[in-house]
Predict the structure.
Amino acid sequence: MFDRWLYPEVAGSTPAHFLTGCELSKLPNTGATTRKWRKTGQEPRVGDIVLVPEPGTTWSKWLIGRITDIHPGEDGAIRSATVKTKQGTVTRSARSLRLVEPSTDA
């Protein structure tokens, strides 16, 4: 019943062999940059009116504000934004901001 384990070749008994039916000869390329991960939709712009999510609060308690400054990363993609709200100025991740009304500047 377990005569498979008597063979000296152990490459066939790896988890990859049982999942795919053959051994993995190389690792998959996880460093590939695809368009899916680079494109986030409409980029935030100065003048946009946004909702600023606060951790631990419901969406009805989120602050509303206007983007006054954007902060791009090393690759040129916009990573964070400074938002002026009724309670002051905050800096938040661009991904966490929710667009309410785009700016009218072209």
